[in-house]
Design a protein that fits this description.
Four copies of one chain form a homotetramer. The termini of chain A are far apart. Chain A is elongated and about 60 Å long. The first copy, chain A, has a domain at 73-213: Tetracycline Repressor, domain 2. The first copy, chain A, is mainly α. The longest helix of chain A has 26 residues, at 138-163. Chain A is 64% helix and 0% strand. Chain A contains nine helices and no strands. Chains in contact: A-B, C-D. At the C-D interface, helix 7, helix 8 and helix 9 of C face helix 7, helix 8 and helix 9 of D. Chain B binds a DNA duplex through residues 29-30, 51-53, 61-69, 72-73.
DNA sequence: AATGAATGAGCCTTCATTCAT
DNA sequence: AATGAATGAAGGCTCATTCAT
């Protein structure tokens, strides 16, 4: 018996249909077409199951044209993942910057909201970013990994400050980080615009979940 | 700057090293060797990036031997995923059966614990099961999907019963399901036996997180 | 526009459906089942496009069983071709033996009739015999070729005797042999029992064609 | 005992050595080299027994080069067969067009001559065209079959007109079509330029055979 | 004879990439 | 930049055949 709560309504990697790259970040011309096509196919089928020919057919360019814009298929993926982590980090920073003098609880809430919203809005990007990083070579992955770790540090530090505040009651801060990070990351796989919930609503709810998970008490003290 | 809270310590899909298939489920002989080799490589590199020759080299059999046990590479994956979902469902059911007359809160706790422990103990299996299902054809995925949905229904129904109990305060039950399911699912990617935490400890903590997330109050009424 | 005279009503090598090996020649048991299955598949698909597995599936025996009866796939074909040429030669000889004291014209008629009837009755055998002999190795083909050449000699000698008789008027005896042999050989490809003509009728008509082709005059002298 | 009349002097599918594709029809460059190599090997060994590697070695190109000119091995065969039937039909039409106002007898003679000459000159093409069509899939064979049937219709209609003319005496027009078509078709298997007979001579003789077979009387009336 | 597993060569085809134009 | 042809490695898979049982 199938309940209305099923989390995997179909056999696709990502529920969302629409694209794709953050506005203002997509390059013009063939380069942009290639990146968007590659992102779409990597998200739906996976990097290993997508050929250069597939990408170029989707982008409506010649196969060799790809090689005048990128040195290899791997570096197409690298650029996409780079874009993904960069945009993600930018949003986290932006969210933090708007409440940097407020209590840790406010900061945590803002971070989780930004985390979730970006996974809703750029779900394909997030799926690729989170599932295909292992396809990059060690040298290629290094700068990308640095950005990812920076994002994690941001959340980790806020969690640390929260845990030092008596309004929270955290049994294991590392596991809390894993749990909060993980629940947000999964949003990219199931969210799609027609699901009946707005990104902001999901974000608010998940921020609430994060607060609860951290054991916040109902009458907070000043941070 | 890397903090001690980083969730992705290296560029691999799955942190765990060890294998692999649930005891008692692994077939004898070449068939079992092939399944374990394939599981390991699919988990580390992905299905698309693993060749039949790779699997057979790892399993120390001839490539043609694989084809006397499986009709295709896809059906090797299918069997692994089937095993994964079946074992997962078996554990959820077992956990539930041991508290079927208890309050929903107890049941939720038991389910989350089973969910997490199985993602710790069979992390490779869980990673493959959760990230490569899209590589199966429609016909092949159908029976597997049915098992997955059965597992989800189990958790969904318990959440539903919890939400109808006044000791819980759930803003959105569907999102709660996504959050709790998602945080457990991600465990497979980062957990490894030498991380300093036992599966039981992680499971207890995540069960606690789930309770909190569901807004449980501190003096529960009988379910 | 398709006329009712079209010679290739469908894309198959041989029009006939039914089998197969001459009665009394088919071995008992697995050996016979294998030969008949192989003949059928070689006729319909060709030797190169038929696998040992295909043959064994059709014959409902194990793959290895074939190898306890035949040393190789090639020698299955060799046996079939051998059977085909042997039966063909037997029939030509039998036909000749019944008119050995009659005029060459009678002998030619009898030979053409036997040639055509055997191509009607064992059309699958004839198709394989005539189109797959090149698949045999030099050593294997030698004894088979000898039988074939014996059959041809039979017809060639009768034609020669006819041409020396003044009731015939043959411009080129070698070409007459090719023409008469060739028109009979093609019968195996298009004849099928439900075509509305009996083998005897076709044989009589082709014998008449052969006579005409040899330029027979209407008041024959004694041979 | 081998007579000088033997029709199968050696174990090959086709007696002729030389090539191959009609002048003016062979494409330039690698495509043409591949077609000629494939034709030669298909004729000598059969389609099923010829690998893509064989073709490419013979054509002195890389195996992948074949795939930038043809979608598959099957479509190499399809193109060859298409060329064969097209050229054959073209020659029949050309022959007919030069005697379209003459008596049916003249037309029959012209058709048989064209039929035979094209089987002498392009014997490899004819052998492949006539023996490997069954290797094509249903969809691929359809347009090719249409051309073949058009050629057959041409001959069938002329035979029909002949049979309605009192100078002919045809016992069974359908069998006459089979016989005349079949004897010409077999020419491709045994004719070779050094056999001591020119294509024209063979063609004239077979045209004579065809007339006799149709029961022509020796003092024809105007058609 | 018959079986089930295994073998090594080879199948057709596609891959990411390069090069001369 | 863009093109069409070409390249060498590797892809998944099937082949005819063998062997221990």
């Amino acid at each position: 018996m199938k309940t209305s709560l099923s989390t995997f309504p179909q056999n696709r990697r990502v529920a969302a249909e629409a694209v794709i790259l953050p506005i203002g970040v997509t390059p013009k011309g063939a380069r942009g077409k290639i990146l968007n096509a590659a992102l779409r196919l990597f998200a739906l089928r996976g990097y290993g199951a997508t050929s250069v020919r597939d990408i170029c057919k989707e982008a409506k360019v010649q196969t060799t044209t790809l090689y005048s814009h990128f040195p290899s298929k791997e570096l197409v993926l690298a650029e996409i993942i780079q874009l993904g982590h960069t945009e993600h980090l930018r949003r986290l920073r932006e969210a933090l910057s708007q409440c940097e003098h407020q209590a840790p609880a406010e900061q945590l809430s803002a971070l989780v909201r930004a985390h979730v919203i970006s996974h809703c809005e750029y779900s394909m990007l997030a799926v690729v970013t989170n599932t295909e990083m292992h396809a990059l070579s060690d040298d290629t992955v290094r700068p990308v990994m640095a950005i990812l770790q920076e994002s994690e540090s941001l959340l980790g530090e806020v969690l640390l400050r929260c845990s030092q505040n008596s309004i929270f009651d955290v049994p294991d801060i590392e596991l809390a980080l894993r749990a909060i990070g993980g629940m947000g990351m999964r949003v990219a796989f199931w969210y799609e615009p027609n699901c009946g919930k707005t990104p902001e609503y999901v974000a608010d709810t998940f921020a609430n979940f994060a607060m609860r998970l951290m054991g916040i008490t109902h009458d907070p003290q000043p941070g």
